[in-house]
Write a structure and sequence with these properties.
Length: 127
């Protein structure tokens, strides 16, 4: 009889441990998402008439979403930068640059795709 009680107690303890782990896993992503959204929304306040594009071709040079930031910086003229904004993204520092290129306003978002990863072009917006 004591062996049966010990078995039931170990089953209850294992079930409680699994329950606590599930609750923890469900709560952490929601907390991260809630803390990251206000900063993202404020930093990336774009006009309604912008279009997200995957590739920007400029004077024979091409900038694509996913390119390293250094490659994008070399393709885009530094003299055309209108504004630079920095904030904290989901996995690291984010920089948002707005350029005036050939009469168009181009916004390039640079941020890492993974924790401690290289800074890359995360988005390109054309207005």
């Amino acid at each position: 009889m004591a062996q049966a009680a010990a078995y039931r107690l170990s089953i209850c303890a294992a079930a409680a441990l699994v329950f606590l782990l599930v609750v923890r896993e469900l709560r952490v992503p929601q907390a991260l998402a809630a803390s990251a959204e206000p900063a993202n929304a404020a930093a990336l306040a774009l006009p309604a008439d912008v279009v997200s594009i995957p590739t920007l071709a400029l004077n024979g040079r091409v900038v694509k979403v996913g390119d390293l930031a250094a490659a994008a910086e070399s393709a885009l003229p530094a003299s055309a930068v209108l504004r630079r904004t920095s904030d904290r993204g989901a996995v690291g520092a984010r920089e948002i640059r707005t350029y005036q290129l050939d009469g168009e306003t181009v916004t390039v978002v640079l941020e890492p795709f993974e924790t401690q990863g290289a800074v890359r072009v995360a988005a390109i917006y054309l207005r």
